[in-house]
Description:
Helices cover 56% and strands 3% of the residues. With 271 residues, the chain is an all-alpha fold.
Amino acid sequence: MNTHQMLLGLAGLIGAGLAFADEPVTKxxxxxxxxxxxxxxxxxxxxxxxxxxxPPKPDSAALARDEEARRAALSLRGTAREKLAAADAExxxxxxxxxxxxxxxxxxxEKNTPHLYTLMQRxxxxxxxxxxxxxxxxxxxxxxxxxxxxxxRKDMEPLLRTDGxxxxxxxxxxxxxxxxxxxxxxxxxxxxxxxxxxxxQSRVICDAHWQSDVDAGRIMGAATVASLxxxxxxxxxxxxxxxxxxxxxxxxxxxxxxxxxxxxxxxLTQH
Length: 271
């Protein structure tokens, strides 16, 4: 299943109705993927806008910071870092599992680490869904639309044009994954959290999001992780995932990706 097909599945899964007493029904307008069921019930998702405030206003210092970050990111066009950012845009599995395998030092696969693989899929639903209160409330214009330019993934642009930019769902998922994988594999915590940050930063490099979108997405990702730790099904998968990673390490399994090339690409930016 390709990314475009997966995009069409999100509205039906989450958009079926996340209703809150003080907020309208949360509608998912950017179905990037056919999502696995999340761990969290709608009432347990950290959707409150109070966590975030509001996106930068026109002519504000915050928007000037966004523009400065965008200009810096544009200098990476045509580099290995932009190529990695284009790969990070892929939320269809096994893409995200492959994205974190080098940082884990162990391949994350449906065959060898099934509970971990499932945990990443279900967490994507929860973290991604947590951003839609903000997306729908403000419907912020994405940078590539505001500047009438393109992104690193032209194939995804039609759907992105009508989807709110703030907060970034990719960044929420990336940071949630970084935090959870660091908990599963503490010896690689720095590498995994750094990769979680870079996964979100790829959205600025792609010109798909403003820097403040990414920053807000990370807040929602962390809030989602906190909520997940009260969920029994999540905790069971987390415990099983830890044992799977230990077994994979004991078996000497290594990522099949070119981790050296990934490291070089990531070295071109702070994240």
